[in-house]
Structures
1.
Amino acid sequence: MNEKKVEEMTKQKGTLNTYKLDCTGCKACAADYQADNLKHAIARLNGVSSIKVDEVTGKVVVEFDDAKIILSKITQRMEKLGYHVEVAKTEEVK
Amino acid sequence: MNEHVTNTILVVLIGVFALAGALVSGASIAYAHEMSIVLTLIAVALGYRIYLHGIRSLLHGGITAQLFATIAIFISVIAGLVLPQASATGTAEAVGYLTASAIVAFIIQAGMTIEGYIIHRTRGALEKLIKMSPTTAKVRRDGKEIEVPIDDVRVGDTVLIKPGDKIPVDGLVLSGYSTVNQATITGESIPAEKKAGDHTFAGTLNENGALELKVEKIGEDTTLAHLIQLVEEAQEKKAPIQNIADRFTTYFLPIMAVVSTSVFLASYFTLGFEIALARTVTVLLVACPCALSIAVPVAVAGTIGNASMNAIIIKGGTHIEKLKDVNFVAFDKTGTLTAGKPKVVAVKTFGKNSEADVVKYAAIAEKFSEHPLSKAVLAKAAEMRLEVADPKDFRTIPGQGIDAHYGTKHILIGRRMFDGPISKEADALSEQVESEGKTAIPVILDKELIGVVVVADTVRENSVEAIGRLRSIGVKTAMITGDNMQTAKFIAGQLGVDEYYAELLPEQKVDVVKKLRNGNVVAMVGDGVNDAPALANSDVGFAMGAAGSDVAVETADVALLGDDLTKVEYAISLSRKAFSKMKGNIVYAFIWNIIALSLAAFGILNPVLAVILAEAGCISVVVNSALLLLNKPKAFLKAP
């Protein structure tokens, strides 16, 4: 979708575990709804090229260009949206 | 691929295979029965998203409606494949069970797709805001104009804005003159003038002039981007009423597991295995807590989205619930109900002097004074296009007035500059205007009174309308001010507020708010900076004119981006409507579930009807909530 110039950029992939702070444990359709919101809010950030949100497990995989954005800025944004975030791993994408 | 597209394709495929399966079974061709079974099984298999969701959530420790659907479909498929050998009705029954499971998969997949789409649309307001921001900018670099992607623009760059362009950055006007429609940010439909030294917002629309801007903020730092982020965050913040729905949903599915087991056992021992099976499947399919769990979040998102399109930022579901109860609104006076800038409201002339003479001499004397009253006089002179010469000399006597010379003429400004009565008429006039909280400035030329300039802070255009609208929805109003009693009384009378409190220090404003909260739910409206403590001590704090002031937007519960006070009534009315929808949806979903469940348990529903009922319940609730997005402000009240 959002193809950007690839030269001199290192693409990073971050895998995050998240859960919603105020969720009372119901895991019905509301989870899909929240996942959809989270996806949009993060995908919009400058430098984020893709995001996958697993609405069942809360696992988020985000790909970004570290010349434009750092992972902590992404997690900060998620926290502002009411998620608790743990970074599971980061790797470079070839 | 786009989620909605994938889901839609799946719905179509399931439908096609299920239909093909049903048609083939009746056709007189070789292996019709076997082909029909294969086609139907493919249809069922294409509902894989439902099963994956259900099974994965079970592995993750959660019970979901998708899990129930998965179990129901699985039982039906097995029954369809296994039962006919034992059943007297034979092959027809086999296709019956199988076809039913394909239809169920079709309906659930369709329901999920439709809900997903509607929910996506509630973000429509936000998407619209995001699209306001252009993706490229014309930048001047090394003397050349080049168009670059917005990501490559840097703070400090010079950006050129042509007539009709959308402004891509928050910037400072370096040169040029134009009018800019800032409705996206401030909700103000009247375009704002922009000249060198003014600031512009990203996402606003330049009208007919050209501007050169120095880039101050780009990308995620712009005012527009901040507003979008605030709306995103606000939409995620739950309304307290959600807790009731959540508590219910938490128990709902485990209870359903018990109910379906009981239904199976009870029917098995009284009516036999097959009927027991059919009823259990039906019960599992009718159990849909979606309506409960999704009704409130969608309503919150719809309300906040709608508000943001009206230049109101409501900072979360909690505030919607508070707003609906507001029955008293306290306004700060200066800068909120009034413009906060003194203006010349009348010029009274004496003798043969014209209005222009009076203003001209007053302006000459006050030309170099920094006093707000002087600025008002100078603004009036500019408005009347009068040439204002420099005074030869001038002297300000604090609290009294100005003594100035111009050519051979001697000008005195202010009542106290003159000994003795000037004229009876002038004294009477002064007394009268002062009782209205205005200031009378006598202008004396060579010891002769030539006129009186009357200066006052003016009530904002729509303040009266704002108060009237609040009254029309049963909300009382009060004006709170640090100004003197006389001025307060006059302005309060002009506005028609129910109560007014004057001569207050900022901390006393807090006390008034606390006192008003005795028995009332009080909203306080102010600029969000000077009156932040009063805002913080009210039930709902409104900051007005908040666009561009991060402090005001941050501290307020509700930020009015422009200066339109009628939005206070709109925010309250919208919240009332939203809350009654939330409550209505929860009650409706609850009753719907109970009825559908009873019908299923007593065998009045079959699996296909059950799943149609469940999905219809869910979709109607979501649609009802999403409709909040389309709410519109009432037309202006007629003048009294």
2.
Amino acid sequence: MARRVSLFVTCVVDQLFPRVGMAMAEVLERIGYQVDFPEAQTCCAQPAFNSGFRKDARDVARYFLSVFSGAELVVVPSGSCATMIAHHFAELFPNEPKNLEAALALAPKVHEFSNFLLDVAQVDDVGARLEEVVTYHDSCHALRELKIKEGPRRLLRKVRGLELREMDVAEECCGFGGTFSVKFDEVSGAMARTKIESVMRTGASTVVSIDSSCLMQLQGALSRADLPIRTMHLAEVLASR
Amino acid sequence: MSATFDRKIHETVSNPELQLKIYTATGRLIEGRKSSISSDRLPEYEELRNQANSVKKHTIDNLDYYLEQFERNVAAHGGKVIYCKDGEEVADFVLGLAKEREARLIVKSKSMTTEELDFNERLEHHGLESVETDLGEYIIQLAHIRPFHIIAPALQMTRYDVADIFTKHLGVTETVITKQTQIARTILRDKFLAADIGVSGANFLVADSGAIVLVENEGNARLTTSAPKIHIAVAGIEKMIPRAQDLATFLKLLGRSATGQPLTVYTSFLSGPRRGEEIDGPDEFYVVLVDNGRTKLLADREKRESLHCIRCGACLNICPVYRKIGGHSFPWVYSGPIGAIITPQFMGPMHEPSLPFASSLCGACAEVCPVKIDIPKVLLELRADVKKAEKRDGQGKLERLAFRMWAWLMRHPRIYEMAGMMAGSLAPEATNGYIRAAPPLMNHGPIRGWLSQRDLPAPAQKSFRQMWRGR
Amino acid sequence: MSRDNILHKVRTALGRSVDQAPPPAPPARISVPSIGKEAKIESFLIRLQALAGKTHHVHSVGDALEYVRRVVDGRPAVASNAPLLAECGVTSLPSVRSGLTDRDELRALCSTAAVGITSADYCLADTGTLVMIASKDEARLISLLPPVHIAVVNADRMLSGLDELLETLPLPAEQSSSMVLITGPSRTADIEQTLVRGVHGPGEIHVVIIS
């Protein structure tokens, strides 16, 4: 009997990188899950929370809780959004016991995509094939809050034809940081350039990450530098055949 | 952000030589730390961090008790504790003592707390000579600039910068590093031996011993505290630890986190003037305990952990933002992630309102902090504080309105979808899905900020929800 | 008065009252490994050598004296009043002054001496550290002012590390106004992160272990 998972694709994927969401759904179905998409979903409230607008964050978080109240398992193609929901929602409701309870009940059901595959589905080989030289960027929230480091690399090593090379600054922040990317655009840009210089040194043709915001930042910098290197979300890599 | 902050950041980020210097120097310190805490060199690293965190928390949460215990023990060993509420009171005390003892020359070892208090400036204003003896501090004192880094004050300088400073202020030109060091050593040796008062900071205050602990590599702190007849240690009240035995935890973390050294060359444990049959050492020993706003930070339970800091500098070295903007971009003496969290708490959120936002919240700082301060969490609290303050002051209306509207939109999925479609239709021309430039009408605010540094992905032809529906 | 004011502010900030006992502190973490004497000596020598300290392991006071004589090489030197130094005959070497108890005289000699000779109260094996406690036998400046420092120590003073030191001596302040841990020669990397030795303290350090 197929287990049901609900997708929270994130606003960035929904509006800018929909193929990531489709790829994630495809992989989940391939390994035997029934996938649904609660259409009323929008955003995890991270932009407001990170910008210091806690009331606005609370309003959106409340809405999120209502949209996903019936979900058994929620899979998210982003470490930062998964962290927002699973770690920070509870901080928003110190004075709202019902919502606090809902947030705490939801937290263990929310999984970042690579974590879901390895820890819940317990698979590391989804039958993918991609003949590329790839380097992996460790997204900060995933790395430091969800302790995701080896997992995506393990999944990538099972992709047929794929060669994984490590960049020397894999763990350094790409410089996105939400509104930081535009409030401190010069610094953000410099951080992105440091990363892509490191990518170039690996000789990889593709940068992979589990967070589309990071990929947006890196791809933007790669594109601006007219470099032929492309970015792919882990889900897109794993969906490749 | 303020124009000053913006300008300083720009000057640093757009200077390729400076960028290389900062990156290389911090890179070395990062590697040093990493190899010294590796699982074969220090398997108990995480355990020590947890221990340090809980000891600091306990001490700070019961600080009055330990302050009084410390005071009693200092007195028992022949020393005296002086409490000062700010830099002016510290200067008054030192000037008063100097006058009584007819002291004219002070030698100083490195102390960020004294930087914070404008110690040298205050004394010089009253005709007292106060000479920095740590090589990096000596150089920046000559040049009249602030430290660039909490533990490496002249991190951004080359030997040629130092040569220029020595030529200008000492009348001697030398570009070889060993010779530059020799010049400083010779000059400062005379100062040590002639000084009337030695002023130090304190890395730790030890309550059960009435002692201060000083860690250093050069020997200048030892000389400062052993040669002159009077020793004054100036320290923030938060430097307290309960017991000498806690040093088995803190000393293992401090040197490694700062430079990768299991122990610095000299660690001094000083508990008063010379006593009994001891042959040398000072005749008088004072510990000046400074508030300067720390009691304000203490009162904020959510952010109180900011006072756990042992000033190792590890967060500066690892911070990708510090590594681009450097220490001089920061608005106060403390730079890097720790500077970003304590500055708004000492100076008020509106001192530099964008400071808590000068971070991508990557969390690398929290990962390396030996006492486990959750810096990103404090930054997020400070961001909320800034927005509250702006609201109170009637500022930031546009942004507040924008987020209000955004929050409304995010609760109305169909309208959100329509907004997405509209953005898609209004988006400028894209090549391979990426936009390089926006028309003047659109080239403002966030769009302009983004496009100044990198290309922007064009909104997708069909959003995910549209694609899903069409499945 | 600032004292009462500040303490009051601290208590108010913490919600504590005067004379309120704190909850028990987390116990201090002291973890002493069990290492054999020979292994400790070996570790000490290796660690100090890695920091460009010079070491010499001897089995007689005669050999210790010989080493010291060679390093001093007739240059003006000051020796502390540690009994071990007299026992070794170090204090009888021609250019060595010792037995000093006057602070000013000692200081004047140390500032012109080429070598300072001391013993040490303890050695820490895991870091190559000398532990010097100020007393009538050991002045502070002898191991600090001259550009060369020689320490002659008996191997039975060897401890495994900082934990064992603080287990042995939990309250160093009871003994002396000054306890200094010396780990290698004085150094700085303040200019261009380039290592330079002998900035203010001795740039050359020799430790002779007698076992």
